[in-house]
Specification:
Elements: E1 3-6, E2 9-13, H1 24-42, E3 48-53, H2 59-72, E4 76-82, H3 85-94, E5 99-103, E6 112-118, H4 127-139, E7 153-155, H5 159-168, H6 175-181, E8 184-188, H7 194-204, E9 208-212, H8 232-240, E10 245-249, E11 256-259, H9 268-282, E12 287-290, H10 296-303, E13 308-311, H11 315-325, E14 329-332, E15 336-338, H12 348-362, H13 366-371, E16 377-384, H14 391-401, E17 406-408, E18 413-416, E19 421-426, E20 432-439, H15 442-460
Parallel strand pairs: 3-4, 3-5, 4-7, 8-9, 8-10, 12-13, 12-14
Antiparallel strand pairs: 1-2, 2-6, 5-6, 10-11, 14-15, 16-20, 17-18, 18-19, 19-20
């Protein structure tokens, strides 16, 4: 059982002992710490906070605890109930709220849950703000309101519709163009809130929907991370139904993966590539993804006359870089689409609409579309080190070894080679170096990863 306290929020497994798992005690403590931070940050005591959750079995319990804690601090709560991460992000500024909390452990299995924390823009807090909340929680530096100053709760179940309307109102989304194509799409909602939101959007766009695991029971029918090894059922059903493609989302609907018409994975890395291809064909500008994302985005961006920029891993870092360079679209290679004309957060609904527009205008099959993009293959490895080794010094040594190549050190060490790249990052919690590589074939990507692992071992004096 696990409890992870980090600058991006708190997550853990349900049950067990306080301070070792995500128990009711820990939930109240960290909700109170967030509320107290908001009060200090704004200089006001009476605030408004938006709350929403995915369909996890523990979701309603955790939500009741969080809502009651904030009310106890004297805050008013807009309770969206069952929701998605991007829906809560959109709701915060629309409600003119001071912040928001999303109750979801994203792609983690059902025994996990988490509190993800937002600012008044509906964007994730930065590292400094997250650290301040951890400090408040550690010191239990909060004081609750008296009986006459308690907050209130307003339930609002309209935000799926509001979110979909926001997507349909985007300048680059033309519902009539999509309706004319009469697409047929299979949706795997992993029995969470995406099983409601994605079909609602598709039906509003005139798409025939075949539902798979769209009952929001929180009983995930497979590992909820949308990777190939977990998605055999939808890959088979897309072919059986002769669908145009399939859509897979994670439990909180900020990651988006497609299944091609032939039942093969479109590739999570290529979700952003395709959406960027469409946006850049209409809007000139730059793109951003994190350092561990596919080089294919750079290729597509340059094809459209834009410039690609890399950010440190983490959504908040990608958003910060997008704002800095005024990127027209960005995201992460895990299927996270960030489209500023909507909001600065990963949004599977926005990504779905942009992808449908691309298909509507481009024609052909989804398999044809995938084949039209540069082919890259990734390998992900890790090397375990002894606790006494200085990981930072090892990474510096690797950067020196490849100093004649294009090197980035904003997040570990990224080495860009002519036909491939390698990204080395250390774990924040254990002596591990993660090794991500990409090349023009799987064999080359795997071989590059193995070579780098051996070079790290030699540098560290570790026997193979």
């Amino acid at each position: 059982m696990t409890l992870i306290k980090s600058i991006s929020g708190i997550r853990g497994t349900i049950g067990g002992r306080p301070n070792e798992n995500l128990t009711p005690v820990d939930t109240v403590k960290f909700a109170a710490a967030y509320g107290r931070w908001l009060q200090k940050h704004t200089g006001r005591m009476a605030l408004k906070v938006v709350i929403g959750r995915d369909a996890r079995i523990s979701g309603e319990m955790i939500q009741n605890l969080v809502v009651s804690t904030l009310v106890g601090l004297g805050m008013d709560v807009i309770d969206l109930g069952l929701s998605t991460t991007p829906t809560v992000e959109i709701a915060v500024p629309l409600e003119k709220a001071d912040g928001g909390i999303i109750l979801t452990a994203s792609h983690n299995p059902k025994q996990w849950n988490a509190l993800k924390l937002l600012n008044s823009k509906g964007e994730f807090l930065n590292a400094e703000q997250g650290a301040a909340i951890l400090d408040i929680a550690e010191r239990e530096d909060f004081s609750f309101a008296t009986v006459d100053s308690l907050g209130s709760v307003v339930n609002n179940d309209a935000y799926f519709d509001i979110h979909i309307d926001e997507v349909l109102d985007l300048e680059l989304v033309d519902a009539e163009v999509i309706r004319e194509k009469k697409f047929k799409v299979v949706v795997d909602g992993v029995n969470s809130s995406g099983g409601i939101a994605i079909p609602m959007l598709l039906e509003a766009l005139g798409v025939e929907v075949v539902k798979l695991y769209c009952d929001p029971t929180g009983q995930f029918p497979h590992n909820p991370e949308p990777l190939k090894e977990h998605l055999g059922d939808i890959c088979k059903l897309v072919v059986e139904e002769k669908a145009d493609f399939g859509i897979v989302v994670d439990p909180d609907v900020d990651r988006l993966a497609f299944i091609s018409n032939d039942g093969e994975m479109f590739g999570e890395e290529y979700t952003l590539v395709a959406c960027a291809d469409y946006v850049l064909s209409k809007t000139k500008g730059d793109t951003v993804s994190n350092l561990s994302s596919s080089r294919a985005l750079r290729d597509i961006t340059e094809k459209h006359g834009g410039q690609y920029h890399a950010a440190a891993v983490g959504e908040v870092n990608v958003v910060e870089k997008m704002k800095e360079v005024k990127a027209v679209i960005g995201g992460e290679g895990n299927g996270g689409i960030i489209y500023p004309d909507s909001h600065y957060g990963r949004d599977a609904l926005v990504g779905t609409a942009l992808f449908l527009m691309l298909l509507s205008e481009r024609g052909g099959t989804v398999a044809d579309l995938r084949a039209s993009y540069p082919a890259y293959y990734m390998s992900k490895k890790k090397i375990e080190l002894t606790p006494d080794l200085d990981v930072d010094s090892l990474l510096e040594a690797m950067a020196d070894k490849y100093s004649k190549e294009d090197i980035s050190t904003i997040d570990g060490v990224k080495i860009d080679l002519a036909e491939s790249w390698v990204h080395l990052r250390k774990s924040n919690t254990e002596p591990i170096i993660r090794i991500y590589t990409e090349a023009k074939s799987q064999q080359e990507a795997d071989a590059l990863g193995d070579r780098i692992m051996e070079e790290i071992r030699e540098t560290a004096g570790i026997k193979s």
